[in-house]
Amino acid sequence: MSNNYFEIIRPGINTTFQDKGRDNLYHVGIPFSGVMDNRNYLMANKLVNNKLDAAIIEFAYQGPHLKYTGEKINFAITGDVIFTIKKDDIEIEGKCYESYQIESGNEINIISTNKSVYGYLGISGQIDLKYQWSSCSINTKANIGANNGKKFEVNLFNEKNNGESLLSLIEKGYIKSAHDISLGGLLTAVSKMCIKGNKGIKFKKLKQSMNEIEYFFSEDQGRYLIEINPKDLANVSKILDKNSVYHEELGIIIDKELIINEKTKLTIDELRSYNNNWLIKYMS
Fold it and tell me: For residue 220, how many C-alpha atoms fall within 13 Å in the half-sphere facing its CB?
């Protein structure tokens, strides 16, 4: 798979390469490692016609969001997992224990595990990994295994590029306010900006294929929410396109209301009250 690769858009909480692992090495100071759920590990490899002891991607709770580049391959996800597949701007809900074919440009977004802690992503073919003591299995505490013994990390190039592009827009005077989309996700960032600026926002209609919970609450320190003057939209978009920064128009600034859709809306005063008083009400 040397010409095939995945770009890590979001690494997930605890995503690692695993196989059957290594044991019986305690006498030389090497701890046990390997998959946590052997049944789902074997089934994922079987579904993509791999050898049963092939390397696999194991994730816990929130999984990775990956963009694929290369020739057509198959993948399967096992466990109790919520995930989507994006092909040509069309997003579909995936089903566990089924095999899917993807091609260059497609994305796999593993949103979360459901009633299980761990899930598994099996990919057809051999993953090019470093093996230690006959296993690629990652043990993050001992820093051994593939990927230098570390779990998946975010694409730092994209994160840096996004941040530098934001600084450039600030220097050019285009940014009226900005907030990172980290703790709490997009909706939390919007709420903070509305409270601080005493302004409202009316969201544009979401794409029908988009999962609303994922859209509003996914956390990523590499993304930013910016407020600009409508007359500057074309120039800002041109700069972001030139820097290869993905962007979308979220909504329009309005007076004193946060409007997500026709059924979900509240005033900024209500939003401020919820923010200031929730702990008091919770503790009383």
Answer: 27
Sorted by where each begins, the domain ranges of the chain are 5-149, 156-283
Determine the average pLDDT of the residues in 23-38: 79
Alpha helices, DSSP H only, in the chain?
Answer: 38-47, 156-171, 185-197, 212-217, 233-242, 268-283
Better-scored residue on pLDDT, 260 or 183: 260
Task: Specify the pLDDT at position 123.
Answer: 96
Taking the alpha carbons at both ends of the chain, their separation in whole angstroms is 59
- The tokens 């609303």 sit on which residue? 212
- CATH number 2.60.120 given to 5-149: yes
Residue tagged 């779990």 (tokens):
151
pTM of the model: 0.58
Name the amino acid, one letter, at 140: T
Decide if pLDDT at 208 tops 50: no
| d(C-alpha 237, C-alpha 215), whole Å | 21
What band does 169 get if pLDDT is binned at 50, 70 and 90? very high
Query: CB-side exposure of 95: number of CA atoms within 13 Å?
Result: 3
CATH 2.60.120.1440 for domain 156-283, yes or no, is: no
Cα 261 to chain center, whole Å?
Answer: 24
DSSP 181: S
The pLDDT of residue 155 is 62
